[in-house]
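User: Hi! I'm a student and our assignment asks us to look at how structure tokens line up with a sequence. Could you show me two examples?

Assistant: Happy to help. In each example below, the sequence comes first and the structure tokens follow. Example one:
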Amino acid sequence: MSARTSPLGSGVAVALSSSFYGFYAHSAFMGALHDAGIFPEQIAGTSAGAFTAAMCGTGLKGRELEEFTVMPGLVRSFMDWGAPFRLPGVLTSFYSSGILSGNNAVKYLRKRLDGARIENFQSPRVQICVTNLTKRESRLITEGDAAEWVIASCSIPGLFCNRIIDGERWCDGGVAVNVPFEHWIDDPSIHTIIIHNIDHIPGTEMVMQWPTISSGFAACHETICKETTELRLRLAREHGKNIIFARTMTAHPKLFPHKQREKLFAAGRATGQEIAAQVVGAIGCETCLPAEVQVCYIDN
């Protein structure tokens, strides 16, 4: 029996949270699960989590995931020459929905993913969470151009322009759903949901620590995500799902986090290894499944 058909991954789904440059910790987390022979049947992600989910969908596994995230040009692909001209419009609210267009990132990722489409991801199946600003609703995307939808899910309002897809406006899935897993609550094929959430150590955020519009917005968003996630976790448990909540804490990545990457990998890998050990040890003993694992990595 191959690793990809191992019982360790049968009936298991993984949800990956949104987080600034979170694909470093997410990729190492998933790589640790793979190294232990755990290949989930489904993966859903928001923002950086969507990026990692798509990588897994293409068949990347183990350390291949980390290697993908450090490819030359990946971070640079998010930048474009039009940013300085959009900045005044964003700051004054006169024009432009974001500073960065995201177009270069779509082209870069489409090339690296060989034009992959989400519906072709079957091992695992992949869902990408985005926000439809035209209809004011969150959506889970299960088909279409993987690169386009991944960047749409990463398009933080204000930082990135809204993506226009099929005539509608789309942006970061984390606006309302920080980590997508509620669609598995009524799925009888999924008995265990592993949630990997990335949090940042207080005081390391890229916002002022005193009251400002940006710090207030960030605090409000974090509060909303926390409350809604707790409600959905409670609902999942009431439906008999095994919930494994894994939390990785790191210092907030810098705008260009090249020097932080290895530490972010280490943090995600440590969480993944702890989760994998617990899952492997719990086979045949559901009561042994961990409720929560937290690995706190402090950047000294």
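Example two works the same way, sequence first and then tokens:
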Amino acid sequence: MRPHDTGADFGLNWALGVLVRFAFALVLSLPAGCATPRLVATPTAAGIKPADLVDTSAFGPDGTPPLVFRQLFAQGERVRESQKPRVIPPKRTALVLSGGGSYGAYTAGILCGWTESGTRPQFDVVTGVSTGALIAVFAFLGPEYDNELCRNYTSVQSADIYRRKHLPWALFTDSLNDSKPLLRQIEANVSPDVVQKIAHAHNSGRRLYIGTTDLEGRRPVVWDLGAIAASGKPDSRELICKLLLASAAIPGFFPTVEIPVVVNGQQYIERHVDGGLTQPLFFRPPHTTEDQNVSSLAELLYGSDEYVIVAGKLYADPHPVTTRVLNIVGDSVSIFLYAQTRDSLVKLYMQSLLTGMQYHLAAVPSELEVTKSAADFDPVAMTTLFEEGRRQVRAGTAWRHTPPGVAGGEELLQRTGTNLTIIPQAARNMPLPIRPEELPLPMDSSGIPPSPID
């Protein structure tokens, strides 16, 4: 049942919905350099990184900014250590993959370079959304599929992923593009042999999850692909392919994917789109058996590793704004998506604290030049991203252990006015005030570790 709308409300909601969906697709489809900066008498600050703009009057008497998030991070590391159980469980490894379209080449490069370094583990659980869902299948099955990863993210072109519809007629359909080419790619990658291997891994206790968004239910949905593969149903491969297509179906850019479901014996149709729309990243604990009698996840996961790979940068590159409605809405959607991803990364970090897992985060370096559109599948640009991920992990510089907002230049500093100073991020990249592994853990009578700022 849908809620009743008045005529005016319906018209407004419909118009806003169309505008936002179109802008969401537009922000991913417009080529780099398509916006022309407006000419104004006073230059805009678009060429200056926001992290470099500082109000020094808000600094403390010692001339340093208030590092609230760093203090919270240090406190959080105390909480992690306080979860330590009496018996340390066997180490598990979880891999969490974000969406990001063609930027998934960076994720693929991380995985391939990880294999070459000789340190890549077998993952007990893998989760992914959007392009991360497509990569998750290969990451789950192991290094033997690195060649497929490399091929898919260094040689495919936009024409191999989607076919553009003609404007303006496309505006009266459910998408700007046809995703049948992507479906053919998925079907070629997810062979019956691949489905059988997923089922075998599932039966051994490993888990593979992907996320979609139920468009009409307006909620995220997590799918256990291993359970589907191991179900023995004749349509399991077809369902897996449709779910992978749905997870990558950017709303408005790609058509929705219809998934038949049975509710109380009656068949319905759900319409699913990009999983990153409702959860840019998500975690699921590894499988537990009935004989593993634990009272908390820390007793199962303490000391295990949680690896998170973001197919993109943590902060969007600044650029001039064109004062036209679609450009403003498109830029606003892009800003929202970056912020939503950072919030999800902080949530994953908090989960790692409460379970005692070790948090590892990799993302595209802020200084690396990338294409402006994640829907532009250019083999040259993708190869650059792939090689950067491969280089980082082989050099041992891929992983950070802090969430967004903690590293130098990422702090959200307050302003007391409009008189600002440019202080480059590198100049503010101070070390953390305390190293997590060096944190003492004296407890008071409540069992709560003291604050590092006391």
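Here is something you could point out in your write-up. The first strand starts at residue 53 and ends at 54.
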